[in-house]
Amino acid sequence: MFCPFCRHPDSRVVDSRTSDDGLSIRRRRQCPECGRRFSTTETASLNIIKRSGVVEPFSREKIVSGVRKACQGRPVTDSDLAMLAQKVEETIRQTGASQVDANDIGLAILPPLRDLDEVAYLRFASVYQGFDSLDDFETAITQLRTEHTNRSQTRTTEDAPSVGTAPTANQP
């Protein structure tokens, strides 16, 4: 690491801290030549391999802009989209790979988008997965309904009191 003041090619790490998002490290450094201190932020690089073979750095902004189109007219806020992009990045980084196919990014977007807004999910999936017919939409909708029903039944079962237990009254 070059000193930004005297351009000396070495520096000493004085302090290291993980950033708020946990994806980067902030280091306080000191130049052994001039003695001045400066900060650096270090992140693990993550590159995306596009279908054309071009490699470019990962960008949360591209995820947000792509998903925003699917969410147009839906009750989804910018903070919802930012959280979705963060979840996608965390999922991709958990693989440990430094280069990921663009297709894998799209696959990582689908589950959190389905949880966020099912209509936006169908819009995104129809483009991303290349729905060609009404049958493709019907299959996706049937799958969503099945998952929705299963989640509702699971919640109902968890909320129901166990057999043989009486409800307790709150006493002051």
From TrEMBL:
Reply yes or no: does the keyword DNA damage apply. no
Q: GO molecular function: any one?
A: zinc ion binding
State the InterPro entries in the record: ATP-cone_dom, NrdR-like_N, RNR_NrdR-like
- What is an annotated GO biological process for this record, any one? negative regulation of DNA-templated transcription
Query: Any idea where the ATP-cone domain is?
Result: 46-136
The cofactor note from the UniProt entry for this protein is: Binds 1 zinc ion.
Recorded protein name is Transcriptional repressor NrdR
Family the entry assigns: Belongs to the NrdR family.
Record Pfam families: ATP-cone (PF03477), Zn_ribbon_NrdR (PF22811)
Task: Supply the NCBIfam families for this chain.
Answer: transcriptional regulator NrdR
Q: Where is this region: Disordered?
A: 146-172
Q: What does this protein need as cofactor?
A: Zn(2+)
User: What PANTHER family does the record point to?
Assistant: TRANSCRIPTIONAL REPRESSOR NRDR
Q: What keywords are annotated for this sequence in UniProt?
A: ATP-binding, DNA-binding, Metal-binding, Nucleotide-binding, Repressor, Transcription, Transcription regulation, Zinc, Zinc-finger
* unnamed zinc finger span: 3-34
Function per UniProt: Negatively regulates transcription of bacterial ribonucleotide reductase nrd genes and operons by binding to NrdR-boxes.
